[in-house]
């Protein structure tokens, strides 16, 4: 192209500059990721691979690469010595040569900085939303996500993380508070037996949530005691941490089918102190020094059409601790 626009923008897009920029950007809303994988439960890898043994230490089971990933032996015959190749999230934005060159010609560094930040914000939103979708899907025990080859969907990455403990189904269609108390006590005890009993939370599907609310309202003046409001749900009888899970996810290029994170007639228990680990593998880019960054963007010159492409990359892998979770199905009507 001759203009070498990427070189002119590179000073604004070093790894350190991007880290500072991202820290000051408006945060994309990612409620399930934030609940289960706050910074203390994130781990950045210096490799593009994650050891199967590291994942199984979190999930409680050896993850199965069903399709779309490569597994590499690194010595020995045990599966714990194999590596999962984490697939990247690669969104991009294109800007015309005239738009970028006019901005550079003005020589206003603040305007250039803002332009770069706007591009990175758009790409960060895509990466954050994709990571949130992966985390939501991982609560099922399996990741099954479409892969793009640059033009269209080319199969899926599928990784089975493990199975959670399934409790006996419960009929609460005619239950009162006393029955509900026994049900929660039973779920709590079964969750504690998984080894995840430090900070137990009940992730509640929409129909079960409505059924519990109906029972509480029927109790009259005791309703606020039965369901004490919290920032993310309520405390049941001031003892059990209940979180409403109205969230769904839609897989790209698979229509508009909304899949509930927690089935509407289910409660899934989890230990928020031991939910697993959200791994970030090192990005495949020399300009990022192959660093384990949760997010990185680089400018790439384009000749046809003439301009510059901003290419983002992130390599998240939510290793959900399935062996430390339980699920109960309810009849509500």
Key features?
8-stranded mixed beta sheet, about 30% strand, 22 strands, 9 helices, single chain, alpha+beta, about 30% helix, about 325 residues, 3-stranded mixed beta sheet
Describe this structure in words.
Helix content is 31%, strand content 31%. It starts with a helix and ends with a strand. The strands form 6 sheets. Strands 9, 10, 11, 12, 13, 14, 17 and 22 form an 8-stranded mixed sheet that branches. The protein has a 3-stranded mixed sheet with strand order 1-18-21. Strands 2-5-4 form a 3-stranded antiparallel sheet. With 333 residues, the chain is of the alpha+beta class.
- CA-atom Rg in angstroms: 23 Å
Low-confidence stretches: 70-80
Helix/strand/pairing category: alpha+beta
Major β-sheet annotation: 8 strands, mixed
Helix content: 25-40%
The number of helical segments is 9
Question: How does the overall form come out from the CA principal axes?
Answer: elongated
How far the N terminus sits from the C terminus, by CA atoms, comes to 67 Å
In total, the number of strands is 22
DSSP strand content: 25-35%
Mean pLDDT score, rounded? 85
Briefly, what is this?
This protein is an alpha+beta fold and 333 residues long.
Describe how the helices and strands are arranged:
Elements lengths: L4 H5 L5 H9 L7 H6 L5 E3 L4 E3 H8 L4 E4 L3 E3 L8 E4 L6 E5 H10 L2 H30 L3 E7 L4 E8 L4 E2 L3 E2 L5 H17 L6 E5 L1 H13 L4 H4 E4 L2 E4 L3 E5 L3 E2 L9 E2 L5 E6 L4 E5 L15 E8 L2 E8 L2 E5 L4 E7 L2
Parallel strand pairs: 1-18, 9-22, 10-22, 11-14
Antiparallel strand pairs: 2-5, 3-8, 4-5, 6-20, 7-8, 11-17, 12-13, 13-14, 15-16, 17-22, 18-21, 19-20
